[in-house]
Amino acid sequence: MPRKLFVTTALPYANAPFHIGHIMEYVQADIWVRFQRLQGHKVNFVCADDAHGAPIMLKAEAEGVTPEELVAKVAESHRRDYQRFGISFDNFYSTHSEENRELSAEIFLALQKAGFIETKTIEQFFDPVKKMFLPDRYIKGECPKCGTKDQYGDSCENCGAVYAPTDLKNPYSALTGAKPVLKKSDHFFFKLSDPRCVEFLRAWTQDGKLQPEVANKVREWLDSGLNDWDITRDAPYFGIEIPNAPEKYFYVWLDAPIGYLASLRNYLEKKGQDFAKYLADPKVEQIHFIGKDIIYFHTLFWPAMLKYSERKVPDNVYVHGFLQLSGEKMSKSRGVSVSPQRYIDIGLNPEWIRYYFAAKLNAHVEDMDFNPDDFLARINSDLVGKYVNIASRAAGFIGKRFGGVLSEEPLSAGRELKHKMRGNLAAPVPDDEQAPAILFEVRSFADAIAADYEAREFSKAIRQIMFLADRVNQYVDEQKPWEIAKEAGQDAALQWFCTLYLELFRILTIYLKPVLPKVAEEVEEFLGLKPLAWEDVGTPLKTGHKVQPYRHLVSRIDSKQIDELLEPPAEAKPEPPAKASVVAEAPEFKLEPIEPPRPPVILPVGDTISIDDFSKIDLRIARIVDAELVPDADKLLKLTLDIGIESNRTVFAGIRTVYTPKDLIGRLTVMVANLAPRKMRFGESQGMVLAAGDGNSIYLLAPDSGAMPGMRIK
């Protein structure tokens, strides 16, 4: 039976164009959605702009426009860009909508009736210069847990602690730099600490709806105790007014996820469908794709809000890591970024980056590295050198020698063709089993590749598909159709072989269609076929079928295009200081000068060792299941490592100056497993993780996607 799927991605904030991290998440979700549709499942894939909050209000004020005008302008750019990257949203809406206002009010009133809303008088920071209450993200100070400076008012980027803004030490306004003052205000709170919520969340988060590493992190939060959630903001504020509470507005993190439902409702009602009836269907699966920075909201607040307003709770929340550029955290101000708008504007093919993301993505919460050299090599080698090469090698003969008409002989007719060719022993003879064998082999991978797509193990699916492309190219090299073409009387054999090559290419295209939708459309046009579905893997091209003239499907990347992509645009250069009232002058918005890169320090190769010496070192793949700061140690992090074959190992690594604990949890790395334990004043270090460095930087080593904890490195 076809599945019924309601799928969302995290909502982009409506104050700026997409960054490359948005595109990575949308491509991940889109590949999964397109695969489901290829399987014949019914999918409603929606998103919306997150259009509310103080940042949008303040930016609109700085630009001299209304918030509505600002979000409308940004929404136009968002729609253009997701379409240019082939993202197949059924509906892209906005949280600034009547549907969202109604749903937010309904959910709030239902929670209030059920006893989950409480009113408290709080002391809140107020900017005496700006004359407004400060949202959490506009208050900065020292983390109350670890003491790190310049942390936001809701959570610490260093240790991951979650706290109230009033807990910060030495706070200051990020808008004006002024010391904020405390003022009292009545706020509504969602009682997340209610025992009913805690009991529900313990069950909901531990029954397979979340990835193991996410479930473990959520369990830590639950074990440490949940705080009630302030869902109120005071005027002036751009958002949705709380029912029966003038001058009080919903905190954006309440109405933003409700935007998922608002976008779905808008879409279904446009199609004449009943929104409430759709979500009441027990067969509907609600799936969210998000980044690891918003786990807390989507795995605690969101399901609890839905549960106790008597609405459907999510079936799965799929979390991905961050996107880095050549091992460095993306940062526009430092020029470490890839602009998706620039990518398209300079003529780079969006199918290229979709393929590259697919080749790197897996089901774990791991940061992904965009390496320009690797990007160029993968596209030129895999897509051009392997996949498209199969079609180009066959299409020329079929078009020029046979007018685009495929063989009249079925693809299982190797034995019959061999009999016809016995008169000319100089010509290559098809093997009785080889043709059916290669066809069977390529078809036989369908279930395994489908399982990888379903599990979001896209990198594994791509490796299998490229393995098959290698096998097909090897088969072509062995059969040498260019030599068959030179032999008199061998036209039937040549036509049959080239038909087989195109059939194998057709199957590979089905396997790649979730990743390369535009290429797949062009292949369908070339082969003269209706849109391919997954079930078509076993339905071969018809004998005597006519194909269209072949046009090149994927071109190679020129290294000059990569250079142009990475060249910092003029607008990334630091600008002169703005007026005091402009948001850009706030500490977190200042653009820092880009330091010129220092040449790496390359040390000479060490003394020669024997293979026996090397074999004594037991190198293993390890997963970092936990990472902690080490008190009184400026350079050390305490890592808990899973090496798959015994209890977890503890390792103290001198990487604190480069990595924060939350950046490491869930990542794979390499460790020396048989190093003698070393007693330190902080505890016992039971091994060593491997990193590269030049004296200036440290780069933790990581295996390719698909490696598993415990695998030995040889």
What keywords describe this structure?
714 residues, alpha+beta, Rossmann fold, Methionyl-trna Synthetase, domain 2, Isoleucyl-tRNA Synthetase, Domain 1, 4 domains, six-stranded antiparallel sheet, five-stranded parallel sheet, 22 helices, globular
What would you say this structure looks like, in words?
By secondary structure, the protein is of the alpha+beta class. It folds into 4 domains: 4-95 and 256-367, Rossmann fold (3-Layer(aba) Sandwich); 106-234, Methionyl-trna Synthetase, domain 2; 369-538, Orthogonal Bundle (Isoleucyl-tRNA Synthetase, Domain 1), CATH 1.10.730.10; 611-713, OB fold (Dihydrolipoamide Acetyltransferase, E2P). It has 22 helices and 27 strands. β19 and β20 form a beta hairpin. α5 crosses α9, α15 runs antiparallel to α16 (458-479) and α16 runs antiparallel to α18. The protein is globular. The two termini are 46 Å apart.
Tell the overall outline: globular
Span of the ends, CA to CA: 46 Å
Low-pLDDT runs of 5+ residues are 415-434, 571-602
Query: What's the assembly state of these chains?
Result: single chain
DSSP summary, beta strand count: 27
What is the helix content?
Answer: 25-40%
How many independent structural domains? 4
CATH homologous group name of the largest domain: HUPs
What is the level-2 CATH architecture name of the largest domain? 3-Layer(aba) Sandwich
Radius of gyration: 29 Å
Number of helices: 22
Largest sheet report = 6 strands, antiparallel
CATH topology of the largest domain: Rossmann fold
- CATH level 1 class label of the largest domain: Alpha Beta
Instruction: Kindly estimate the percentage of residues that lie in beta strands according to DSSP.
Output: 15-25%
- SS-based class: alpha+beta
Mean pLDDT: 88
